[in-house]
Amino acid sequence: xxxxxRSSMTGARRRTPALVAVALAAGLGACQATIxxxxxxxxxxxxxxxxxxxxxxxxxxxxxxTPSTIGIFGDETWLYISRRTETYAFFEPRVLEQKVxxxxxxxxxxxxNIQRLELADGKVVQHVARIxxxxxxxxxxxxxxxxxxxxxxxxxxxxxxxxxQSPPPGTMRR
Length: 174
Description:
- By secondary structure, the chain is α+β, with helices and mostly antiparallel strands.
- It contains four helices and five strands.
- Strands 1, 2, 3, 4 and 5 form a five-stranded antiparallel beta sheet that branches.
């Protein structure tokens, strides 16, 4: 019996480094970056077919497809947007590459300008987290909870919702 115990301990000693190696490999594998590519930017060959002043919106849609988005103030600008990001585990994604093709149209619907933008052309907009205060007193949770205690008192002669009294005049719905 002592022989069996000794061989099982030797086997356990041999398996321990292997199990540690497998655990480390699994842990490192979880830290692998995830690359996401989203959106669509037409290739240079198709963009070269578009001639400023000659083609209309229908021609552009036929050559390049539907845009990713249309300009906010009317549909005079079509945007084709593509972005490649890298994400590690639960961290914020990091933008590796971003391409934008902006095609502007004039009032007649003809192409007036084609512009190519990269990630470096973008501008970071800082979000302002200010809060506009409202007039009045801010009550704490406890003040809100205990604020109505004693307001609906039968002995004071006030109206108690669900009681036998009729509601004050002008509060009934018809």
